[in-house]
């Protein structure tokens, strides 16, 4: 018995993209299902508080609209992270502009990273959350992409628009800081 | 705690955790971990941080997919019809021929007119014009031929009488072959270097 398109076990992203281009919407469902959780986690780790699903949706809409510009030099997931990160930066810029008239309080910086507030209950996880909050935004991005998503330095550099060497340094500084903070708690 | 001395192995710890290592690399890292407390602690932290992200946000995949627009084949710029292309080629060829022919004609005419303006002056200082060229309206100033006085000695200086010498000196005073214009005035420039 020949397996149907839905039953193909390990179709690559490129194969699914080709199927979607030929008009198979189920290929899009599989691609979204494959990558949406990772995108949501990356958004949460990067400090997004609200509208994570909307952000993930915007990422896919934008990605599918410009799939012809995806040259396959990186993995699809890395490319999606890049798009999502750009959307997050746009959101933050827009938020900053809308808050320009409101005086900035000291606590804003401290509570910037709060995505996992309601999600991490255990004490250890709470300590991790506090440690990550102490990192700079770039260190946090690089660290979570490396540790939580398992991306290589090359892929991280692509996502954050940096170099491999810079990503390596950010990761090294981040892990040292997290190690120190967790040790002192 | 001792600091890890193998940064190459240390860098692979997240890859070990995500199962991205080959069997050989995995074995090397595990052997290193057995003797490196610093890396063991780092791996523990990596596991904690990775575990802390075990958050599963609820993403409605179908809803996301519904928002994705259908694929549109990129449209290539439309090619001009065959007849229009032939006309374009003809126009281009005509313009080319006109330009090349016109340029050659113009160049030929310029060469001829330059030849017609060649004049010569013979030993009697008379202008010799080509037959095709009218003597008037040349558009160029013809050289003015002028006879100038010349001095010459017909005998040795000792044989000249006082009168002849006086005459020669008078002639030399009036001889206009020498420049009679005054030298150009020289303006002193103060460069303040002496101050």
Descriptive account of the structure:
The complex is a heterodimer of chains A (185) and B (195). Chain A has 185 residues and is mainly α. Chain A folds into 2 domains: 1-102, RNA polymerase sigma factor, region 2, helix turn helix motif (Rna Polymerase Sigma Factor, Chain: A); 120-185, Arc Repressor Mutant, subunit A, CATH 1.10.10. Helix content of chain A is 66%, strand content 0%. Chain A contains 9 helices and no strands. Chain A has helices spanning 13-21, 25-45, 52-65, 76-98, 106-110, 123-133, 137-147, 153-160, 164-184. With 195 residues, chain B is mainly alpha-helical. Among the domains of chain B are: 7-55, no CATH class; 81-130. Chain B is 48% helix and 2% strand. Chain B contains 7 helices and 2 strands; from the N terminus they run ααααααββα. Chain B has helices at 7-10, 13-17, 23-35, 37-52, 61-67, 82-116, 162-174, and strands at 120-121, 127-128. A two-stranded antiparallel sheet of chain B has the order 1-2. In chain B, strand 1 (120-121) and strand 2 form a beta hairpin. The longest helix of chain B has 35 residues, at 82-116. Chain B starts with 6 loop residues before the first helix and ends in a 21-residue tail after the last helix. The interface between A and B is large, with 44 and 33 residues.
CATH topology (fold) name of the largest domain in chain A: Rna Polymerase Sigma Factor, Chain: A
Overall pLDDT metric of chain A: 81
The profile of the biggest β sheet of chain A is:
none
Order of helices and strands of chain B: HHHHHHEEH
Q: Kindly state the mean pLDDT of chain B as a whole number?
A: 73
User: What is the makeup of the main sheet of chain B?
Assistant: 2 strands, antiparallel
CATH H level of the largest domain in chain A: which superfamily? Answer: RNA polymerase sigma factor, region 2, helix turn helix motif
Shape of chain B: elongated
Shape of chain A: globular
**Structural class of chain A, please?**
mainly alpha
Please give the share of residues in helix of chain A.
55-70%
Cα Rg of chain A: 19 Å
Q: What's the number of extended β-strand segments of chain A?
A: 0
Rg estimate of chain B, integer Å: 51 Å
| E-strand count of chain B | 2
Biggest chain pair contact, residues each? A-B, 44 and 33 residues
Tell me the span between the first and last alpha carbons of chain B: 76 Å
Q: What is the string of helix and strand elements of chain A?
A: HHHHHHHHH
Portion of residues in beta strands of chain B equals: under 5%
Helicity of chain B, in percent? 40-55%
């Amino acid at each position: 018995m020949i397996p149907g398109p839905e039953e193909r076990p390990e179709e690559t992203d490129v194969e699914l993209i080709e199927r979607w281009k030929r008009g198979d919407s189920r290929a899009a469902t599989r691609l979204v299902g494959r990558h949406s959780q990772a995108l949501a986690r990356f958004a949460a780790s990067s400090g997004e508080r609200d509208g994570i699903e909307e952000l993930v949706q915007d990422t896919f809409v934008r990605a599918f609209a410009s799939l012809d510009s995806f040259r396959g030099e990186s993995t699809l997931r890395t490319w999606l992270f890049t798009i999502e990160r750009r959307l997050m930066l746009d959101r933050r810029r827009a938020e900053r502009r809308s808050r320009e008239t409101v005086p900035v309080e000291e606590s804003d910086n401290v509570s910037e990273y709060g995505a996992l507030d309601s999600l991490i209950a255990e004490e250890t996880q709470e300590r991790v959350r506090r440690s990550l909050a102490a990192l700079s935004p770039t260190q946090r991005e690089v660290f979570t992409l490396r540790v939580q998503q398992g991306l290589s330095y090359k892929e991280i550099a692509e996502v954050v628009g940096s170099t491999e060497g810079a990503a390596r340094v950010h990761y090294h500084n981040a892990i040292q800081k997290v190690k120190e903070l967790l040790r002192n708690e | 705690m001792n600091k890890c001395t193998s940064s190459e192995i240390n860098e692979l710890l997240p890859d070990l955790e995500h199962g991205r290592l080959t069997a050989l690399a995995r074995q090397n890292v595990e052997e290193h971990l057995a003797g490196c407390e610093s890396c063991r602690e780092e791996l523990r932290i990596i596991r904690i941080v990775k575990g802390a992200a075990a958050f599963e946000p609820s993403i409605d995949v179908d809803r996301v997919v519904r928002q994705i627009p259908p694929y549109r084949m990129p449209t290539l710029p439309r090619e001009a019809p065959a007849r229009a292309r032939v006309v374009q080629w003809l126009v281009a060829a005509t313009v080319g021929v006109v330009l090349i022919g016109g340029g050659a004609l113009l160049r030929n005419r310029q060469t001829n007119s330059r030849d017609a303006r060649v004049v010569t002056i013979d030993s009697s200082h008379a202008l010799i014009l080509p037959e095709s060229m009218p003597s008037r309206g040349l558009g160029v100033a013809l050289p003015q031929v002028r006879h100038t006085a010349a001095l010459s000695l017909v005998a040795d200086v000792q044989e000249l009488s006082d009168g002849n010498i006086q005459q020669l000196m008078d002639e030399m005073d009036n001889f206009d072959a020498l420049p009679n214009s005054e030298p150009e005035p020289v303006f002193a420039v103060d460069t303040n270097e002496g101050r």
